[in-house]
Structure formats: structure tokens, C-alpha cells
Amino acid sequence: MVMDLHGKLASMGLELPAAPKPVAAYVPAVRHDNVIYISGQLPLLAGKLLATGPVPSAVTVEQAQVAARQCVLNALAIVDQMIDGDWSRFGQVIRLGAFVCCETGFTAQHLVANGASELLGELFGKAGHHARAAVGVIALPLGASIEVELAVAVTT
Amino acid sequence: MVMDLHGKLASMGLELPAAPKPVAAYVPAVRHDNVIYISGQLPLLAGKLLATGPVPSAVTVEQAQVAARQCVLNALAIVDQMIDGDWSRFGQVIRLGAFVCCETGFTAQHLVANGASELLGELFGKAGHHARAAVGVIALPLGASIEVELAVAVTT
Amino acid sequence: MVMDLHGKLASMGLELPAAPKPVAAYVPAVRHDNVIYISGQLPLLAGKLLATGPVPSAVTVEQAQVAARQCVLNALAIVDQMIDGDWSRFGQVIRLGAFVCCETGFTAQHLVANGASELLGELFGKAGHHARAAVGVIALPLGASIEVELAVAVTT
Predict the structure, then answer these.
(1) Is C27 in the A-facing interface, judged by CB distances under 8 Å?
(2) What angle do CA A71, A72, A77 make, to 5 degrees?
(3) Contacts of range C5-14, beta carbons closer than 8 Å, 24 or more positions apart
(4) How far apart are alpha carbons A27 and C144 in whole angstroms?
């Protein structure tokens, strides 16, 4: 069980961003009972999208994987805020939904989504293993190349 | 906490439709523990779709927002039926999924989805605030421009 | 309540496959409290996809329905593994998400998804009735024509 997520991220050369604000009329996350449902995250870093346009013509699989990882960091920043930075309250990642903006005939949505899934495994070990749906979509908000949503179990 | 949803809607010039029947082999909603999962709703009004075809070529963002709102009204009609019209049993909206039929390069799925999200905020205040994923899809059942699914917490 | 799922399937000329392995960095399913969340399943049978490419140009609605049913069989194989084959622990199907790879203008995603939904109804009766979202997407992992995810309630 990771207790010091910030330290763990730092050891990987990563850090949690400021929790992103939603770009529309909803909230970053809702907790119901012991599950936090996090809104679909775009690969925003310092207010700019890391990747826009469809895979593979506008961005490569590798670039989309980095973007997928950023979506997860943004999601974790929201969880961090909701659990007041106390990661002993983290239980497990339950489900991850990955929507990859792509062209007809692109078949590696699962590899793109691995950018998200593998980070969760590295950070949380078995507690980071999740159910997942990864699909290709025609377009995403703000032109993002990927959107990731998460459901995470926490202790109350 | 809204106790008189029907009165509140009437004051906004809106009303709940008859609960829509599913168009296929599933049910309008399932309750598990204290969560009602509502099937993806199309913008049906009196048996006809309010908006068909992709945004923005076939319908404008504004038209799609109205359609998104209708999806929510249809979902709430189903909740109304499941809680026997007793909105004191309503807890909160947990999650909203918005699938917007659109063309390549359309980037305002979040604005379309706001038609759904803002109605929930107007009706329920903080209890209407939800986690959300809004994505663009190539096509939807019956040619609808939008499909919205909801998860709502209720008391048992 | 179905106690002998394997026998029921056999009477329908069907059988559970070996539980499919995930094709990427996640797990087949996660149980949280009394819900099993199953990862998006592709129509794999004996390691090969039953249907690839978009509906209706590459595969017919009927072929896609058969593929949708295979996705459900794969999902149930995973549930079977998680409940050690003891289907008295099965509660109900809560939610089904169906992502149909299709072309612009295809409007029968719900009919394709019926291949999944109707099998669940045949197998489990009322306990197989579920909330559902069926949408059309531009492309899916490995070129699959359909991906289905499930959430299923079980007793602990």
C-alpha cells in the first residue's frame, strides 16, 4: 500500500499537478459510499493539452501513451484533494475507461491505454490493477487525443 | 433537497415525460444497493427524436444541448418511476456519461453535455453535481445526436 | 436463479470458454464490495476474433450479434473464475456497455447489442436484465467489431 504517493512519484520523476478544474458544468469527482468517481480527464499539463488530434495521424502511439499517463496524474490529483492527501485512505483502482481519439482502422487503443494502466500498476502495485474498457472515438473535448475516467475505492 | 421535482420542473416550463420504454432487450434502469443505474437515454420526446445526425453538420451545438436536456428528463422519468415519485428518496447524481454523435474535428462535446449537466444543477443544486465523461462518437442508435446515461444515489 | 450455468449453456449449445487473458496492462475483472467489474471483452473465440471491422460494411448486424454474444460468454468465463464456479453466488447483471465499431450513419447499435443482452436474459431471466448503454465507435482494439463491458452483483 502506497502511503507516500508524492514521494513515490518524485522517485519516478513525476509529480501531481494542481487538481484540474472541470472545463464545464460538472465537478471533478463525486464520492459515493467508499468509491470516488473521477470525471473524464484530458491530458492537460499546465493548462495545455499534451496531445491533440487523432492517433496515429496527428500523434503517435508513444505520444498518446504519455498523454494517457498525464490523464491519470490529473485524476490522482483530484483524488489527492478529496482524501486530503492521506493516501493511507486509498483502497484500490476499480475501473478505468480510456477513450482514444483515432482514425478508422486504428487497432491499438489498448496500447495507448497502457500508458494509463501501467502508471497505476507502478504506483500502487496490485491495488492499482483495474478493470478497463479502451475504445476508439471520433473526437474529444478541446480536440484532446485521449480522455480517461477512473473509479477508485477509498476508506471513509 | 428537492422534494417536489414535478413542481420545480413546471416552474421552469418543463415536465417529466412518460418513462420511455427501452428500444431493445434490456431494462430502463437497475437498482443495486442504493444506486440506480439508468440505461443510455436518447433525446426522445413523444416518441420522436429531438435531434438526429452528427454535430455540428446536422444539428447545432445549441440544438444538441436541448437534446441533451431531453435525455436527462427521460432518465429522471425513469428514476421517478423507480422511487414511486417520492423525491425525498433522491440522494445525488453520481455520474453522467454523454456520448455525442459528431464529425471528425468537433471539439465541443463538453458544451453539448452541459445541456444535461446544467439541468441537473438547476434541479438539484449541489446534489445534482456529478462526475462526467463526455466523448464524441461516430454514430448512435436510431441516428440520435446524443445519448446520456446516469447513475443516481437513492435511499432504500 | 441459475445454479448450473454450465448445464444451462450446454442445453443451448453454448459453453464458457477459458477465461480470456487481458491483452494489455490491466486485469480481467475487479471485485469491489459485492460488484464485479469486468473489463471490456472482445469477441475472441479460441484466440481469434469472431468479427473485425465496422458494421455494416465489414460485418453484418447478424454477425455482430453473434460476436456480441461471444463477448458476454468471455465475460461470464471471468465471473465464473472469480466466483469459483459457484453460480449460487451470482446476484444480477447491473450494467452492460456495448461499443460497436461502425460507419457513419449506422443506426442499429442497439440491435447489435441485443446479441449480448438477449443471451443474459435467456441465461438468468430477470436477474439478467440490466441497464445498458450502446454506442457506435470509430475503431476498437485489435480491429474488433464490438467490445462489451459488464458489472455484475454477487454475494460475498
Answers:
(1) yes
(2) 100
(3) C5/C76, C5/C80, C5/C87, C5/C90, C5/C123, C6/C85, C8/C123, C9/C73, C9/C123, C12/C122, C14/C73
(4) 34
From chain B, the residues in CB contact with A25 under 8 A are 114, 117-118, 121
Closest CA to A136 of A83, A100, A112: A100
pLDDT in tens, B25-48: 899 999 999 999 999 999 999 999
Distance from CA of B21 to the nearest CA of A (A): 27
Task: Give the model's pLDDT for residue B135.
Answer: 98
Grid cell listed for A134: 479502451
C-alpha cell at C154: 454477487
Letter for the amino acid at C123? L
Among chain C residues, CA nearest to B99: C135
| Domains of chain A and any CATH numbers | 5-154 (3.30.1330.40)
- The grid cell for B126 is 449541489
Q: How confident is the model at residue B2 (pLDDT cuts 50, 70, 90)?
A: low
Contacts with B6 (C-beta within 8 Å, 6 or more apart), sequence order: B15, B16, B85
- Residue that has been written with the C-alpha cell 472482445 in this structure: C42
**Cβ count within 10 A of residue C137:** 28
Residue A44 grid coordinates: 492537460
How high is the ipTM of this complex? 0.95
Q: Is C31 in the B-facing interface, judged by CB distances under 8 Å?
A: no
What Cα–Cα distance (Å) separates residue A1 from each residue in A75, A87, A121, B53, B111?
A: 18, 9, 12, 48, 39
Chain A partners of B134 at a C-beta cutoff of 8 Å? 24, 40, 141
Q: How far apart are CA A38 and CA C27, in angstroms?
A: 20
> Which residues, listed in sequence order, are joined to residue A55 by a DSSP beta bridge?
A102
**Rounded distance between C-alpha atoms, residue C2 and residue A110, angstroms:** 34
Burial of A108 (0-12, 13-18, 19+ CB in 10 A): buried
Give me the mean pLDDT over the B52-69 stretch: 98
Cell numbers at C68, concatenated = 456480441
* pLDDT per position as a tens digit, C68-100: 999 999 999 999 999 999 999 999 999 999 999
d(CA A82, CA A24): 19
Pairing of strands A90-101, A131-137: parallel
Query: Are C43 and C50 spatial neighbours (Cβ–Cβ below 8 Å)?
Result: yes
- Map grid coordinates 499534451 to a residue: A50
**CA–CA distance, C116 with C114 (Å, rounded to integer):** 5
